[in-house]
Amino acid sequence: MANTTLSPMAMGGGAFVDDAEAQARFAARQRYLARRRRILPVVAVLGLLLIWWQSVEIFDIKPFIAPSPVAVAQVLYERFGMLMTNLLPTAIEAVCGFALGNIAAITLATAFVYSKTTEEAFFPIAVMVNTIPVVAKAPILVLLLGNGMEPKIAIAALICFFPTLVNMTRGLRDVRTEQLELMRILSATPREVFFKLRVRNAMPYLFSALKIAASTAVIGAIVGEWIGSTKGIGALIIHATHNFDSPLLYATIVVGSTFSALFFGVISFAERRVLRWNVGQNS
Amino acid sequence: MAVALAKPEPSFAAVGGAVVCERVTVRFTTERGTVTALQDIDLSIPTGSFLTLLGPSGCGKSTLLRVMADLIEPSSGRVTVLGDAPTVARRRREIGFVFQDAALLPWRTAMENVTLPLEVGGGKALPGARSPHELLKLVGLSGWEEAYPHELSGGMRQRVAIARALVSGPRLLLMDEPFGALDEITRDRLNEELLEVWRSTGTTVVFVTHSIYEAAFLGEKVLLLAARPGRVRELVPITLPTPRRLAMRETPEFVALAGHLRRVLETC
Predict the structure, then answer these.
(1) pTM of structure
(2) Interchain CB distance below 8 Å, B108 and A12
């Protein structure tokens, strides 16, 4: 049963026959396809970098307009320590904001599912707050919360909040009627219905929201640092732009994006572990 | 009616059946007005019997099943399940229900789906209930315990659902078109196996279907319902010998019975 590609054709046991040669061929083909999936994007990225590099060389583009990838790599290598020192506060803000925003959203979604009144009262407010652009929210929160990490965390949290609220509410609510009837026939308590049915049902919805939130939380933290911050990826972007230091600007963006991608990867990994039962629907 | 707090002694014998319906009427109110789904249903289902409910769509057969399962409260009339109100019987875990589309929880393996009734609502199983392993074996799914629903075929999912409905050892098994979405070959096989399960558990079965052949093949009696409003049309005893085999569907008696059912259905 370790093999996950079970044939649904089989009616009982004994549907699988060992055929070592065919199985080896099948496995080899699967390995080839997996390798292809990994190698192709790498090849594409390398190709684009090459084109970029050659364009800068051939057309003699000024470094402050667009740096050559070699110059960016040089900054990444030589000023790695400085870049990491600036990544740390951004990472902390993004992760804290992510946690805070999602916990708040999940809590409110639970309240929505059990109380129509709460939803009717608060959902329009959530929509309104969500329509304010991040760049407009940032100065308000800096004024409210000062110049430390707090406003950045708040921005990251706010930006995560909405997608999770909407998805989680849907996931908790969109339970099939038959499943609810089943729970009633089994005389399940409301608590059991919540944890054994609604929460489990909401997991795929939650994870799609969390994957969006993982990258937007980083954006929120960076935008928060644009206003009066002296450290962090956002501050570094502003600093590099004002000094026409485009290699540093690009290097900073690479660091920020890499962190974002890693964060996304961690959530995707968690998703695959938690939603093992969901593979059939996803792939 | 006094609620029996003592052991669930077979008090139903005194009332005369596993399920007794007295002038049961169900009305639904919608935007477009009130619909009478069931009107004055009088019915007594003997303990241990197999009754099939047959009727055109909209005749309220699923509604009647849901009234027995305590999922719908009748607008008027009285329902007694195993000697008590349906709510009491449900709390005692005497009712098993199989839905049309299995209604398995997709995040649970076959085995975990079968054991769900033992985890919720107090998790009690009645004396004489079989173990989850035994039940999966009974429905022919040994070796599939760890498979998730998306790895199972429609027929296999329905087998899991049957095992789940039986795990608390219910004395009343309600089935709502459980094989309606399956292909004919699978359906035939499950029909035969269901009779085997019924024989080996001794449970009272109420089975809703819109297939004439299924109704006649499975039931000891077929209750024909007419539509708009849903009401009892005819109770047809099925006089075929037991144990029933699929080949019996070609006998003249079976053909005559099916013909009779179809003729009545046409006037429903």
Answers:
(1) 0.82
(2) no
